[in-house]
Amino acid sequence: MALVNQETGLTQQEAVAKARRREPGLPVASLVLGALSLTGMMISIWMIFLYAPTDAIEGQPQRIFYFHVPIAWIAMLAFVVVALAGIGYLWKKDERWDWAARAAAELGAVFATLTLITGSIWGRTTWGTWWTWDARLTTTLILWFIYIGYLMLRSYMGRTHASARAGAVLAIIGVIDIPIIYESVNWWRTLHPQAEVGTPGALPPSVVLTLMVSLTTFTLFYSFLMIQLYQLQRMQAVAQRLRASME
Amino acid sequence: MSYLSIKGLKKSYTFKPILRGVDLDLCRGERVALLGANGTGKTTLLRILAGLTKPDAGSVTINGMDIVHDALQARYRVGFVAHQPYLYDELTALENLVFFGRMYNVNEVHERAVALLNKVGLARRARERVSALSHGQAQRLSLARALLHSPPLLLLDEPDTGLDEGGNELLADILNEHSERGGATLFTTHNLEHALSWSDRIAILHAGRIVYTRETEGLELEDLQETYREVLRPRTKVLS
Amino acid sequence: MIFLKQVLTILWKDIRCELRSKQTWTGMGLFALLVLVIFNFAFDLRVDNKAAIAPGVLWVAFVFASLLGLGRTIAAEREKGSLDRLLLCPVDRKAIYLAKLLGNLLFIGVVEIVALPIFAALFDVPLFGALLPIVLFGTVGIAAVGTLFSAMAAATQARELLLPVLVFPLIVPVVISAVRATGTLMVPAANEPPWLGLMAAFDIIFLSASMLTFEYVIEE
Which end is more exposed in chain A, N or C (fewer Cβ atoms within 10 Å of the end residue's Cβ)? Predict the structure, then answer.
């Protein structure tokens, strides 16, 4: 026997089925990306620690560069994804865009944190200080604050359409602002030259190759994680619908 | 040719469906009373018509203009009296009307404002701040605000609550005048007597849809009460 | 132009309401002065390092006072959930944004006009006429972003906390430029980047972006 909710006219099964629109293709993509990431990681780690040459000036600690740069790249990429997903949501009003935005924001925040940590460690080994106000690191720090602000905003506003719209606007404003922030910090730095986190000068091919492999691996890994978090968002939306249809 | 045309209107608040496909038409000069239990979406429907919130699905046209695509133009044609008076407490009654008059691009704002204050019986309160007015007086001012731009469509959300006897008479007069001039009116109420005497047609909203409409001509109060009770009776179907 | 008329109508209404409630002005003015006095004790401004710190002190005071004012104007509208009063009217949402922005600029501007001479007196720093465009562009930058986000934050419970968290990171370019430009006025330096130009570009970009996205934030 199935009780029909007098308000919604839906049975419990119908409500769940309606909310659970299947996303075709994702489980396959997830598997493929997962396998590729795993392989990539193994190759990368071998290359980073064994293949890439030891830096003449900095020594072994320089290898953190091969983690720091891809992680920083992902932190930036994720933010662009949040902004694009936000634009998609404002345009199409389909909540799936918002699921992607939230997933990207959570991932981006984590990667931004890791960028700051790896950058800090690298700076410590190179210059002896835990922090330098170099343009990239500073911009990442500000980006980190924007991520946290985004997550706070979404959290306070809950899972509503207004929340999705507000998040989209924040991401759009933020993504326009990031290059301006970077440039202004750069200008400011020319007046206070300080320790810089980076590898100056031309890089030998083996270094470039290792970096490219690492970059690709992390991007694959990010895509894999995006699918997982997207599914998580979808599940949360299903749960929300269930709760609403039961009352 | 209907002035207001609502088709398949749907609206949910965070996945909780409130309006599930509302169909309703209003002609010029027609007054419709919308009845229904609390929380069934009457206010939501009016808010959509007033342009305060957008529907999830369905279409609403006012004099042929779509309420979402021509939102700005549509708002010019609607006057809305809600639960809240939508007035500014720190401004005087007159200043409030002048403000809204300017926003609606009314000609000769001052004269119009004074005329309306007279009409709703607040002429002596023109220079008092809204915070000093009683609830009933604020409601009258809200009515004046809604009439400033002579809207062809008048929406009122439970206008009779909070008004005294004199206020109710005033309301009835205004509604009559409005429909005589060819304006359409949609109002909600819990008072079935008011619904019968102030409208040409009643409609009952239940479970997100209009489930009953009937011309009020020849309709007796007892019959309406019976119908109302019957429609609103809770139902749970059991399927096997 | 109806658009312009509506902007001015809303602005006039806001000014009237604010003057009658007297809440925001006095609070902001006092706050800016307090910050300046506290900085006097926090930093020991002797002659040699004055130029290095004074611009920072001034702009920190302005930024904090701005944040205070920004929260108030939209919060006042949103109390009792009454942004509806404006949304009901046939008014372009961009006009609402502009009116709120102009109102914010006015409030912050008044505080700045009061604070500047006092700043000059307290820290024995000469006031320059060329300071005007810097203060103007800087304030517009802060207010352009701040007006948009105060509308956003006003919908939440923790609005006083959320507004600075959202706004501070985004106005970093403005703060850097304003402080450096002010510093250059006091102690001219060679090869200084075009800070005023950066502020102007920032203002134009974010005025436009905020105006266009405002409706998504305040409509239900």
Answer: N
